[in-house]
From TrEMBL:
Chain residue ranges for the region called Disordered: 1-20
Chain residues forming the annotated DNA-binding region: 39-58
Protein name: TetR family transcriptional regulator
InterPro entries: Homeodomain-like_sf, HTH-type_TetR-like_transc_reg, HTH_TetR, Tet_transcr_reg_TetR-rel_C_sf, TetR_C_16
Gene3D superfamilies: Homeodomain-like, Tetracycline Repressor, domain 2
One Pfam family from the record: TetR_N
Domain HTH tetR-type: 16-76
Domain of life: Bacteria
Entry's Gene Ontology molecular function annotations: DNA-binding transcription factor activity; transcription cis-regulatory region binding
Amino acid sequence: MTDSPARTPGRRPGGPDTRGDILRAARESFAGKGFAGTSLRAVAREAGVDAALVHHYFESKDELFIESMALPVDPRQVAAVILGGPREELGRRIITTFLGVWESAEGQQRMKAVLRSVVTSDEVARMMREGITKMIMVPVAAVLDVPDARLRVSLVATQLLGLALTRYLVDLDPVATTPVPDLIDRIAPVIQHYLTA
């Protein structure tokens, strides 16, 4: 009879879904602490693995963030939905799509991570700004066919970011508890005014 090999104490080695466990722990950390407050060591601890294993899968915190922030929707598909209808209903489509992403449980967790990281990291802000500009803002501005289209779309972004901060991060009432259909009815005309007035 042979002795079974002794298990060494410490973190568990990689398993079939170790990468997935690390990504889940990273998403929770980025959502809860933002980019600056998250460390690879803390993510490893939360995932129950050795920190070296996190480095095995992800070269840096930036790479881990890019992978873990996998947005719940493809920004190009968001642009297609926004642009897929009459111009006079752009405001309603934009706010409906935006709230649809934020109101799902997984979408909210992922978007919180992105938003917190955008406001705490210049690099992440630049990355998001460039991606969102290319995939959403430029196509929307193109259909407006007015000289100040980029400014108009940027003003819409201020409305959406303000709503996200107020409703989902600051949790400020009554915005935080107002039913989604009521928010859509109130905000859609404001966005439409930015775009077409």
